[in-house]
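Researcher: I'm preparing a figure for a lab meeting and need a structural model of a single chain. I don't have an experimental structure, so a prediction will have to do for now. The sequence is pasted below. Please return the structure as tokens so I can convert it later.
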Amino acid sequence: MKEIDICQRIKQLRSRKKMTIKELGSKTQLTQGYLSRIENSNNPPPIPTLLKISEALGVHISYFFGDENSQNGMFITKNNERKKIIRDASSLGYIFETLAHKKNDKVMEPLILTLPQKLDPDTLPYMCHGGEEFLYVLKGEMIFFYDDEEYRVNEGDCMYFDPSIPHKGVCSTENSEVKLLMVLSPYTTKNLKDILIS
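Model: Understood. Here is the structure written out token by token.
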């Protein structure tokens, strides 16, 4: 996608939602002049600004990076087309790669999650959020903590659980890499803020 397309999508979506620039400015705390310059620019705004705009317009930020070339509802993401995103756990070293950023208005969010090595489970905070979550271990072995229980999960194993229960996962050994397929429900993705970074 060209950068100019992102600016055009902002303007088109705002018009489709019958929202004035003044209303969008009120929701984003951005000035009308700045928003007008964005809509008529060839360069998209910074990611934090785009995140504010996407929230105000009621779409996930990936909407502005989506691929509208599909005519039959099929979207293919090649291995080299994955996009890294920032989530709450990214600061701890977790790496999230979105697999379906080309599809708008998704009913699920599939991701590849790589666990950081050498994390101390005793100091690692628990996570909890709405929706449902599915994990499939693509590579490696992990220890998964779910409420007061501890599970050893191996390559090829999968888990389907209620993520409103506190949970966290770490590599079972310090030097092993663990990769997971993670699928989140829309209730989860709506409540978590993801920022596309590449």
